[in-house]
Design a protein that fits this description.
The complex is a heterodimer of chains A (455) and B (316).
Chain A (H helix, E strand, L loop, with lengths): L4 H9 L10 H17 L4 H15 L10 H17 L14 E7 L5 H14 L4 E5 L7 H12 L3 E2 L8 H15 L3 E5 L8 H14 L3 E7 L6 H12 L3 E5 L9 H9 L3 E5 L7 E3 L2 H8 L5 H11 L2 H12 L5 H14 L2 H6 L17 H12 L3 H5 L6 H11 L3 H23 L3 H10 L11
Parallel strand pairs in A: 1-4, 1-5, 2-3, 2-4, 5-6, 6-7
Antiparallel strand pairs in A: 7-8
Helix pairs in contact in A: 1-2, 1-4, 2-3, 3-4, 4-11, 5-6, 7-8, 9-10, 12-14, 13-20, 14-16, 16-18, 18-19, 19-20
Chain B lengths: L14 H8 L6 H11 L6 H13 L4 H16 L6 H18 L12 E6 L6 H14 L4 E6 L6 H12 L2 E3 L7 H14 L4 E6 L7 H17 L6 E7 L5 H13 L3 E5 L9 H9 L3 E5 L7 E3 L2 H9 L2
Parallel strand pairs in B: 1-4, 1-5, 2-3, 2-4, 5-6, 6-7
Antiparallel strand pairs in B: 7-8
The chains are: A alpha/beta (455), B alpha/beta (316).
Chain lengths: 455, 316
């Protein structure tokens, strides 16, 4: 949809080749493009203004490095500036010296507080803590029930409260007491969503804060928020003194410029990002990746990390050997597809790709997840012998496989054709010039060559 | 004049008045400057144009639409057709109202009840709350309403809808959590036919528009509705949060592709957010804004009125 900033800048600088320095004149057009890109990404107007001023100052008179084109140089300056603003390093959670550590989760309605509370509890328990959750949202219908259900899903305790405990403060106090008795070291308090201009509810939060002196007061912000992010974050921070931010709904396609706005007006670090509906879809915040995303430049690092986390290294190495020996069977092919599946929905993987060169447009490729399921089903319907040697699959075997997997014979044929083509391609790669090296690279993360899966 | 699916007409309090009187808003420095802009003291110059741009962009109208408006003004001032700021204010308002009203389309007539209203949107925009308010509104018009709990995904979503059912005295058709949304819809429409209900309002799970499998689920629900009632779903409302930024346009585009959105409900206008992205949506996708949500109580859902909405963009 949007044009990538580096492409825009390339166009701007096309006529300026051979310049030795970035000058006031050749920068103005570039700065206009940068400004547009940041505003399109929902960075707040005033924040953009400040950033542009900083970038102008940085860029002016800077030598154009021979290694980089002027456009690359400017992109680098912009990116560095964004990273600096977002916080140059990852920020960790703080814990009380005397447990339990109380953490308040606050934010506007619908930003994703309850889901984030569940995700954070799961994250904490994976990282050696034993959290307890409590919902003090006594306003929204079924809000407390929602957290109970989540507690069951992530298999972590939720303090339900007694009949007498009706106010948020009573509920939270009860939860802390329970946590002390049951040896839980973190209490996550999920609060009711509220508007920052609602005095009564903001006072309620102040009371909670005073009663508990929480080690973390986390503000949950929606990545799709527009210019208003500044006002709500500013007001929450002014009244409560937030200590960190969780940015949710990052699995959508919003650029997330709100992250810059929130960070600028509160000065507090972004700590986590929510990247999916499942409870393990919470990741530590990485300023460099966010900067790339705001500029529409993809997030290759996250992709690589995701792949590394999911792929079984030994299996990947075995696969690599097989590729080199041209011994890649349908069985291996199926394993690869399954591994790929584990990384996450394919369209979210493609979202992380930069929009450069041959990968341009990949974001808009419509991936049919069912296609992979279908391919796996077809291979599952083969006998082990057939999977190891596709040459024996004749007409009648094809008909049987089609019946077994609920597809047409044409679909079985298509799969076999794609498989033989992929094999042939591998053979050419491994056999030819620079073959081994390239094959090693491809095999490194065990990535299959996407045969059939993409349409 | 206000339309409903059955063509009834009623009188509403002015949205602008409600927004102004009902909510105490935090005043900010720049607004006072905007007052100056519009009070007729200033000349049209570069400073004034920048302040205007600020007002437009911070209302989430978007850099492209704002740019077009500013261009329009520059042209007019260059040709000396425009010289006082009062005129300028009128011009911008007229332009925006025109864009919004151009997308207005009459509601489809319902030949055989029930009218099926599908309510869709991304997570956390206020779909369930909007449905509660919508049910109350239809009931005030003397219509028989049935609610369909087709958000079988989010924890406790069904219970949340049931609370709204109790509040409005409306029956809720539900199944177990995790059930197929289309199956719940099927039940609800059958029940509505049996009870001769006028409306079935369908709650769906919040979903990000980028998840193609979840969007396909909405297509299936459309097909289910169409099989049971001719012309259904009669209305597909995309619920959008006023805090949504430029991504709102992409949301509207994707939801329209998969579920055939017929109108927007803009919620949470009682905060400081302006919801200006609906202007780009009205212009690019020709989608009308049907209702606005301005508070948490049951009658805080008002029919959209372009002139008062545009006025509120500049008011604080």
């Amino acid at each position: 949809m949007f044009e990538n900033l580096s492409e825009k800048l390339q166009r701007v600088f096309k006529n300026l080749r051979g310049e030795g320095k970035l000058t006031a004149e050749n920068m103005e057009a570039a700065l206009r493009e940068i400004r547009m890109a940041l505003l399109e990404a929902d960075v707040h107007f005033k924040v953009v203004k400040q950033l542009i001023a900083d970038i102008r100052e940085k860029a002016m008179g800077e030598e154009v490095l021979t290694a980089l084109s002027p456009s690359q140089q400017v992109v680098k300056i912009v990116r560095d500036e964004l990273i600096k603003t977002l916080g140059s390093h990852q920020s960790r959670l703080r814990f009380a010296s005397e447990p339990p550590s109380v953490m308040l989760i606050v934010g506007l309605q619908g930003s994703g507080k309850t889901t984030s509370t569940g995700k954070l509890a799961r994250w904490l328990s994976r990282n050696g803590h034993s959290p307890m959750m409590v919902s003090v949202d006594v306003y929204r219908p079924a809000a407390r029930k929602q957290l109970s259900v989540i507690g069951r899903d992530v298999n972590l305790p939720v303090y339900e409260g007694s009949a007498e405990e009706k106010s948020p403060l009573q509920l939270a106090l009860g939860a802390r007491k329970e946590a002390v008795q049951t040896g839980r070291d973190v209490v996550l308090v999920d609060t009711a969503g509220r508007l920052h201009i609602d005095d009564q509810l903001m006072t309620e939060l102040t009371e909670l804060k005073t009663a508990f002196s929480p080690v973390e007061l986390l503000f949950v912000a929606d990545a799709m928020t527009g210019q208003d992010a500044v006002k709500s974050a500013e007001e929450f921070h002014r009244r409560l003194g937030i200590t960190g931010v969780i940015l949710t709904k990052m699995d959508g396609d919003a650029r997330g410029g709100a992250a810059l706005s929130v960070r600028t007006v509160t000065g507090q670090p972004l700590k986590f990002v929510g990247v999916g509906e499942k409870f393990d879809a919470l990741e530590p915040f990485h300023p460099d990746r966010m900067a790339s995303r705001i500029l529409g430049m993809g997030d290759v690092l996250s992709l690589i990390e995701k792949v590394e986390e999911t792929i079984d290294r030994k299996q990947a190495e075995r696969m690599q050997e097989k590729l080199l020996d041209n011994d890649f069977t349908l069985e291996d092919f199926r394993d690869q597809l399954r591994q790929l599946r584990k990384i996450g929905p394919l369209d979210s993987i493609l979202k992380l790709m930069p929009e450069i060169g041959p990968l341009k447009g990949m974001k808009d490729v419509d991936v049919d997840e069912n296609e992979i399921t279908r391919v796996v089903a077809i291979i599952d319907s083969m006998t082990p012998k057939e999977r190891r040697n596709h040459m024996i699959i004749n007409g009648s075997r094809r008909r049987r496989i089609a019946r077994g997997s609920g597809v047409t014979v044409q679909q079985v044929n298509q799969l076999l054709k794609q498989y033989t083509q992929a094999r042939k391609m591998m053979k050419n790669l491994t056999g030819g010039f620079m073959g081994k090296k390239l094959a090693k690279k491809m095999g490194k993360f065990g990535l299959p060559s996407f045969p059939g899966g993409l349409s | 004049m206000i339309q409903t699916l059955f063509g009834s007409v009623e009188q509403e309090p002015n949205l602008f008045e409600r927004l102004k009187s009902g909510i105490e808003k935090t005043r900010q420095g720049f607004l006072d400057r905007l007052e100056d802009v519009f009070s007729g003291e200033k000349r049209i110059d570069a400073d004034l144009l920048e302040e205007l741009e600020y007002a437009l962009i911070t209302a989430d109208i978007g850099v492209t639409t704002s740019g077009e408006i500013l261009e329009l003004i520059r042209e007019k001032t260059d040709r000396s057709e425009l010289d006082n700021p009062q005129e300028l204010k009128r011009l911008i308002r007229e332009h925006l109202v025109e864009v919004l009203e151009a997308s207005d389309s009459p509601l489809p007539r319902v030949s055989e009840p029930p009218a099926v209203v599908l309510v869709v949107g991304v997570n956390g925009t206020g779909k369930t709350t909007t449905i509660g308010k919508l049910a109350a509104r239809y009931k005030r018009d003397g219509r028989a309403v049935l609610l369909c709990a087709a958000d079988t995904f989010r924890a406790a979503a069904i219970e949340q809808l049931e609370v709204w059912g109790q509040r409005t005295g409306t029956e809720v058709v539900r199944q177990k959590s995790g059930a197929d949304p289309s199956a719940v819809l099927f039940d609800a429409i059958q029940a509505a036919k049996a009870r001769r209900a006028d409306y079935v309002i369908v709650d769906t799970a919040g979903r990000l528009h980028t998840k193609s499998n979840l969007m396909a689920e909405l297509e299936k629900m459309r097909r289910t509705a169409a099989r049971l009632v001719a012309g259904a779903p009669h209305e597909v409302l995309l619920v959008m949060d006023a805090t949504t930024g430029q991504n709102g346009l992409e949301q509207a585009r994707k939801f329209t592709e998969s579920s055939g959105v017929t109108g927007i409900v803009l919620t949470k206008l009682d905060g400081t957010a302006k919801g200006g992205v609906v202007i780009a949506i009205a212009r690019d996708l020709n989608l009308p804004i049907r209702y606005v949500g301005v508070g948490e109580s049951i009658d805080d859902l008002l029919p959209f009125d372009a002139p008062s909405f545009v006025a509120s963009l500049f008011e604080e």
